[in-house]
Amino acid sequence: MVKRENERIPVSQQAHIVDKPKDLTTIGGTISVQINEKKITVPLGTTILEACQLNQIHIPTLCHHPDLCIAGVCRVCVVDVEGMRTLQTACSFPITSPIKISTSTQMVRKARRHIIDLLLSEHYGECYSCFRNGNCELQNLAKEYGVDNYTFGHVETPRYEVDNSSAAVIRDMNKCVLCKRCVRTCIDLQEVGVLEAINRGHETHVGTFLDKPLADVVCINCGQCINRCPTAALRANDPSDEIWAAIDDPKKHVVIQTAPSPRAAIGEEFGIEPGKSFTGELNTALRRIGFDRVFDTNFTADLTIMEEGTELLTRLKKALVDKDQSVKLPQFTSCSPGWVKYIEHFYPEFLDYLSSAKSPQQMFGALIKTFYAQEAKIDPVDIITVALMPCAAKKFECNRPEMVDSGFKDVDYGLTTREMAKMIREAGIFLPEMPKSQFDDPFGDASGAGLIFGATGGVMEAALRTAYELVTGREVPFKNLIIEPCRGFEGVKQASVKLENCVEQYKFLEGVDLKFVVAHGTANAKIVMEMLKKGELNDVHFVEIMACPGGCLGGGGQPIPTSAEIRAKRAEAIYEEEASLPIRKSHENPHVNYIYEKFLTDGPCGKLSHKLLHTHYTKRGKYIS
Amino acid sequence: MESIKTLNKKRSGPVLFSEYKLGEGVKKALELGRENILFELKGSGLKGRGGAGFPTATKWMLTAASNSDKKFIVCNADEGEPGTFKDRVLLLEYPELVFEGMIIAGYTIGAKNGILYLRGEYEYMLKSLEDYLESLREDNLLGNTILGKKDFNFDINIRLGSGAYVCGEETALIESLEGYRGEPRNRPPYPVNTGYLGHPTVVNNVETLASVPHILLKGGDWFRKHGTDKSTGSKLFSVSGDCEKPGVYELPWGTSINELLELVGAKNTKAVQVGGASGMCLPKSQFHRVLGYEDVATGGSIMIFNESRNMLKVLKNFMKFFVEESCGQCTPCRIGNTKLLEAVEKIEKDDFTFLYINNLKELGRTMQVASKCGLGQSSPNSFISILENFKEEIFGSKGKGRKNG
Ligand SMILES: Cc1cc2nc3c(=O)[nH]c(=O)nc-3n(C[C@H](O)[C@H](O)[C@H](O)COP(=O)(O)O)c2cc1C
Ligand code: SF4
Ligand code: SF4
Ligand code: SF4
Ligand code: SF4
Ligand code: FES
User: Does B402 fall in a domain?
Assistant: First the structure.
């Protein structure tokens, strides 16, 4: 929908690749090339790497990543192009003439091997004591090219201190191969710009502004850089040892909530093709590991809809009926902690637009240590709450000093999908083989509306299903409750639904075209914020933003690797699971109604829910000391 | 400062250091028109003097043919190659040639803007060059409707580099101009299509541009008469090291190393490093070879080492330079150079095997073909040539290496 201005993005050389012709049938639209004795025809501007991939010719890569622009720095993808003095990198070379390519000459193989050898010589550490062992692109390359000794030596002492200042991302530059994927992720994909290469020559390393600790710069903890790092140089801050300790402690009552996205992706960690959810199996596995209760984060996702929806209706009423100029519209969602930190840093003057509702994870934490503790008659001191999340930013979020509304640390640990899989393996469990089981009461199984929070547009879709029905008394006018305009991976989506024949309480909304915008990835969030600044969102009512590309299913804690196809498959898994659920609207979730009857008795956005389920934000700005 | 003064003496040479009157080149160019300029340039056989030796006429033609509303001409005055100081002389003593070359290029390719990318260390020239540009504006050699030519508007501004050798590489230079880290770009696409700010850009060395006015005035055929078949015209050589008369010399291509050594008064010469740190090192047995694209190509740096010099130390010095000056972007160059330096240190300590040395020479060959830019592609040149050409001196006394090899 929104056309990005064609501005030069800082590090990448995106602007410098050849545009493919729109009409391939025009003269020069396609080109015939020869790759290793095979003649093939490709669209003009296709890179050698793409051409090879289309023809089942394997080219090793390291700095290349399908989500990112071209770098051409690792040089392992070199091939021979006839007539050229030097080898060419397949990932960056656009085919614009009928060239002859050889992908496995002696020189090519030798060069690749040398390059891998060089990388290993500077690579501190050994694979057997490394968390990426078995899922590491450098290790794979070494294996592929039969590099079985250190021809050019091997560093014996670390050169860099490990930066574990951040609650979310740990950086160990001793394992960095300088592929700059993280740099491109942060600056091009996310447009945050925390990381850049510093110094030159042998002193080159990826660093932050003035080489400050990651916790002291504008990192939003999205963890997208981790997902794209080929080695163990970047990883999430892993609390699994502490969790094991809690599980092993008989005094502790350890409960876990699981978010929908990890369930749709954790199979990948066990070698299953992307696109299958393991919700029921995971429940069983978690109990076997020793969690005392397994809850569904979707419950608080439903609650988020109630709270955020009520907040929106309240804002609308204030604006339309009371003509209150100070009310900020559109209302922005606040369930993505990466996005929250992004807006705190980059658009602090717009924090009033953000819904005050906490993310589902934090709502759950606060409820477990209050409502659940009461119901189960357990002293909240003894409760440990773990959140299985697709997300690195949730680790930071649960450590925010304000997140103690239950009187305790609401969520003790945020655990990523990858770390969960590790714990499951450690417990000797093969997840796909587990029998299925249900979530525990008193939160039970949630609605499908909560489930689709995992995909970009899901919060909006869930919110519309509820808001529309509350306002008009009828179901949203979409077949099977599937609100198409909310789905798909377009960067910024915009649509509207007309509110007609409203119920008495919401007559003030009669005839209003409820406009909404959905964006995912902070680069797209930036576009939306710039639109807001320019006044282009004046007639919009509700905006959903997720910090990660694709939404939570593409979160920084999800299995590695990631790509657009993998994310699309995970989305399919989520939508499929939701279509089969009996309850698909948040306000119809009986457990939600139960909690408003029993505990949050003054209703959504009431006093108690304000205390437990809502929060406030910090104006951080870009300059932090 | 003394050396600069001695360099500034009145010079003579066949092309660049010959008589020239301000403005004549541009006047002639406007008379000739674009096509004839390209014709003369092609006829002259002029190749880039910055080191790579790409035919200048072709570069201009490609840019002229590029379809874009904006084009740029960049004069590369980064002059970072160790042992090169000829561009400095041109800028100090013949600025009219350089700037007129840029104006002519601008006219030919259809650029309205020229940029002189001046080496950071040459900041002391900035003021006088700016003043010079101002005087060219007064003379209507810059500005609008240059010398009365309708629609020919062109101006030049000067930008300072900040001391990275790699920023002399044309695409790194462009990145640096755009305000980014000085890192070479992927090629293709080439600057002639996608250069400064994404627009077609000609990047030429100072000396290349300075040759153009003379070529237009006296004709491509006249230029061709100097030099050899494949290396036409003359070349400036920056001569330094063990000789009586170091300095900048203009000599026709095809001059042999021996002739040059004689001219500059070099005695007891053991080795000549041609082409700076990224060039190659020739031993006495090869002094008959001639300077030119067909034999010993060079951007003009000649370093002379006499019998008293330790070649391993010379090599170590070069390798240290590359370890530091690599932009650090690509693997073969960033890590490869440190390995080559490590090898030199091991040879120094007599702690190596010949298998290891051979492995490193092989690595050097990989660097030559797999590095992203000319820096990494040429940095192993001195490693390979010095170890091969000065085997006896370097390995002769090393027993341990022998034993294990
Ligand atoms: C590492 C490196 C440094 C270079 N430095 C210079 C330089 O200082 N001056 C220069 O004119 N060309 C330099 N070059 C060559 C330029 O990339 C480019 O080829 C040249 O400016 C083109 O001009 P020409 O065609 O007139 O020679 C360098 C190349 C490399 C790889
Ligand atoms: S990052 Fe990869 S290559 Fe490095 S130690 Fe870990 S598994 Fe091995
Ligand atoms: S976590 Fe996100 S914001 Fe932080 S460095 Fe990584 S990509 Fe950038
Ligand atoms: S930290 Fe990882 S992604 Fe970033 S440059 Fe190093 S290896 Fe590549
Ligand atoms: S060859 Fe060296 S200078 Fe050139 S891009 Fe690679 S690292 Fe940078
Ligand atoms: S994958 Fe092509 S250079 Fe790294």
Answer: no
